[in-house]
Amino acid sequence: MTASEPNRADLGKDPSHVSGMFDQVAAGYDRTNTVMTFGNDALWRAAATRAVAPKRGERILDLAAGTASSSASLAASGAQVVAADFSPGMLAEGRRRHGHLHNLTFVEADATALPFGDDEFDAVTMSYGLRNVQQPKQAIAELYRVTKPGGRLVINEFSTPPGKLFRGLYRFYNAQVLPRVARLAGTNGDAYDYLNESIRDWPDQQTLASWIREAGWSEVAYRNLTFGIVALHRARKPL
Predict the structure, then answer these.
(1) Is the predicted pLDDT of residue 12 greater than 70, yes or no?
(2) For the chain, what is the domain count?
(3) What pTM, to 2 d.p., does this model score?
């Protein structure tokens, strides 16, 4: 595949294919997301930052950080933030935009085999990335491993709107409208075909909450954002 050809990931979620796809959309990723979500992406990011509740002096892992918009939001608190992602293209775009922040570092990382020691972070967070991992339960276990006892987990992920009517409209939008708008925006529309497929295939809120409990996390809870388009999951590592 040449650099000009679109990289099309599928539900097999081969890491090289998914990473390559994100490499190709990195430059326009945030702009396209804002258009696709009618600006809700900023509201969801703010909700996740509040849920993490970063504090100066804490060490926080932002996994699947993408272009590091979420990482920069966390770093504004004064916390030491590690922006980790498996896409070199996304990390390069993140460095270009936010590399001036002295308390933000960038690490290329596989979510299922994190390059960090046990009990390193006061809080760990992952937004819209767990869905792209071949072994999401292993990623949740890795997040548990690198979190300090008493530390916090926040996962923001696309989910299943509980209302039947809205759920139908949402699925129609994802399948029929979203990829077309992405192509008009000059983005790899195939990537947004994959986005729709991965959302449709992803388990509901209760199932993800059960996976988090199975990994050993306590105080597991979630709340829906924007009628359940996304769900904000929270938990704590037992002392």
Answers:
(1) no
(2) 1
(3) 0.87
